[in-house]
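Colleagues,

Please find the record for the two-part complex below.
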Amino acid sequence: MDILSRWRAGGETPDPAKLLAAIPYCQLLGLTAEVRDGALVLIMPFGAHLIGNPVLPAIHGGVIGSLMETAALAQIVWEGGVERLPKPVDINIDYLRTGRPVTSYASARITKQGRRVVNVHAQMWQEDAAKPVAALRAHFLIAGS
Amino acid sequence: MDVSGLIKRGMNQTAYIEAIGGEVLHVGGGTGKMRLPYSDKLVGDPDSGVVHGGVITGCLDHCCGMAVVSALREAMPIATLDLRIDYMKPATPGAEIFFEAKCIRVTHEIAFVRASAFHTEGDPIALSTGAFIITRGAVPPLPHVKAD
């Protein structure tokens, strides 16, 4: 039985913080989740292991993508209605600013949820939410095997 | 050590790539190749043991960067503008993943790259397309190479 089915069987509602705690790679990145003003926000404190360019220094592009992809996944699970963990089909990442060595945040918004596919947009920012570091657009498969 | 060797050492010593256990295999002539052994800490789906999509993104981005850097005549700063990744199938739990990138074209400002992730060549886990911006005439972020 998968993690979401186990939660459902136990009468639990999908909890993004618990989901992140159950995913080893999210633990490696140090991701946590909070609900702020009714919106789910993922938080990634800076760690030296997130560096991709030691000269600037800057957070690795893959870390930025990982944070936003996880924000998208957590948003889908949080809003509910999925039987199992969504699987990414494709992602598009726009890198807008350098990811500096400080705490990063990400949130996502479901643009459209169909029966099989969900379209999600996510953003990552650091000190100023009005100055996004990166944006992601993705499709996740929520049905099928 | 030649420039490719320096780039390879610098790209191998990137903290994030070290943290996920990736290894740069080749950099040169507008191409980059690396391998990533399977590890439990990279898992994104705790039920199946499939690695997180972000791990694939990270290695594809890294390989694309190496391909661009090695396609340029001299060292200069580059940055990822965008990256599209198609996940063709889940990576097999327990199996190591290879990544290969090729810089298709370099213009004055932009470099275009294609990359793939696979267990077996010709059977992709993911394919990606990326664009990088090149900053000519700036002081390059030379690979940070630790002393032996």
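Chain A has one domain: 3-141.

Comments are welcome before we finalize the supplementary table.
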